[in-house]
Structures are given as structure tokens and as C-alpha cells.
Fold:
Amino acid sequence: MQAIDRISKPGPDGCGTLADFIRDQAMIYVPGIAFLPEHIQPQKDFFTLEQARLFIARARRDAKDFRIHCLLYPNHEPDWVAADVNESNWQSRMDAHFEAIASVPGVGSALNIDVTNELISARYDSNDGYRPNTWYRAAGGPAYIPYAFGKARALFPDCALFWCHDHTEQITDDFHRSQTRLVLNALERALKGGAPIDGYNMQGHLQLRLGFDRLRLRSFLNDLKSNLGLMIIIGELDCRTGYLTDRQTDTLPPKEYKRRQYDQDSAHLVEAFLDTALPFVKSSGGRQVLTWGISDIDNSWEENPRTGTPAGERPLPFDTDYRPKLMNAAIIRSFERMI
Structure:
């Protein structure tokens, strides 16, 4: 996902801008920050919709389909939300925010929409996994989730509505086993509460440090498709080492990997993941796989001392010179096996 100002950056000599490369390679566009709550409404009742409008205009000009990410993202909201939203006004505040997004010309032609993002964390296992965000506290529990989906259905009757979540791809330790259990429980509760959830966006942020458990992933995807009746898409595929300074040190920092080994390991993990997930994506009717960017020239895992992200990650299908990596070939092979 790329913001409009970032995709204007020049690529390697003779390759145009990053926007040009994305246009040549992508079938579906996804906005970077244009629809995120902190950008749409940075101050209470002050809506900035121009970038959202420009995103849709770009998609139309380039003859691309597009999807929207995301309407409600409680981990990334402006400060005014915590200061203002309470038990007496949370519904009207959510209504106003969603209605502002619905006013953007053409937004209703999106292929699908992530209504919510990252609402559950196994760190809150004692709270049934629900993150105690502002909306949760104001609503007195998870009732804000069915409400959000119901409001989205009223505003976007022709769009499939998705629940987007992280940490459900590599179910290889206690945290991720708890995470998938809690996400499934929350989805089931929301559906029983009347939430019109059409699908699950399994992000696909892979980490070499976590390894892979094919059987557990298959079981999780089967629960989503067969037991909950949800479409499945992969919306944010990439692969990095997962090393974080002073936090996640059970793998080599990216700079200590030989580049060839890094790329081989990433390709192997991506291929194993897709070979497991794609049958469920296809059979559930989701039929979409999107990467978290396209070239390492611009990615979310660039060096950041604040988050502990080290330099040297190579998470995307094309390198900084727009050359296809082994990961790109692995993605193609997985798709070809599905034909």
C-alpha cells in the first residue's frame, strides 16, 4: 500500500516513478493512508477527503479495480478520539466518520472494504482477546463491532465487508495459537450479534523467525470458510526476518543474512504459505492476493530505531532496482498450481 506522495518517488534510471511500476504490475490498487481514520479525521469534525478522492481518481484513470483499507483502526487513531468518544456519543461519532468516507465520489465501487483492523490480541487473553480500545470502552464491550459492520452495510450495500487481522498466518507458538482461537471466537460472536461480515482479510505478514505450520493454518482457514462461511483474501503479503532490536532476537538481523539465503528462505516460506492458503482463498470466493507494496524501494520495514526495525529487510517481490526476486517466482508458481 502506497501513499500518493510516496509513489511519486523516482525509480531506477529509465524506470519512471514507483507509481508507473505499480500501474504496470498491479491489477488492484489499495490506498496507503488515504482512508485511515487518523488521516480522514485528524481533528474532531475536520475531515480531509482530498487524498481519498485522488486515490479513486488515480485508480479510475489507470483502469484499475480498488479496495478500501480501512474504516475503523483503533490502534491508529488521532488523540481526539480517546478524549472525546464516550458511552453517550460513540455511535454518532462512528456514524459521522463512516458517512464522511461514504461521501467520497466513487467509493461505493470498491471491490471490498476492510471495516475493522486488528481488534484482537492474545496479549489480552483474559479479556477474550479484545483490545481495550476507546470504542470497546465506550460501548461497554465488543458491541461496537456489529454496529460498525451494520453501519458499513447501510452505506456500502454493494461492497463485500471484511474483517482484517494480523498474526494468524504462522501458527507456530503459544501466542499465535491463542491469537487464532481468539480471532475465531470474536468473529463467531460478531456474526451471532448480527454483524454482516462477508470475509476475512488474512494479512500475510510473514516472518522467517516464526517458521510455518501447514496443518494449523489449514485448520484455521477451514474454520473461517466452512464453519463461519466467510470469504478469505490475503491482503498484505510480504516476508521479512522479523528481527527487532532488543525484542525479537531469535533470528539473524537482516544484515547478517547472505542476500541469496535471505531471498531463498523468503521464497520458500511464501510458497509454502500460498500453497496452503490459496485453495481456501479460491474456494471461498475471495480470489484476491495483494502484497504489502511491490518493490523494496519503498516498504514498511525500513530502518526505524523507535520500533526496533533494523536496516536491510527485503520483504517484497521486487528489489530496489525493480528486478523480480525469488519470492516473485514463488508467487507465480503457487498461482500456476491453482489454475
Remarks:
- The radius of gyration is 20 Å.
- The chain has a mean pLDDT of 96.
- The first helix runs from residue 4 to 7.
- The beta strands are 28-29, 65-66, 68-72, 112-117, 160-165, 199-202, 205-207, 231-240, 289-291.
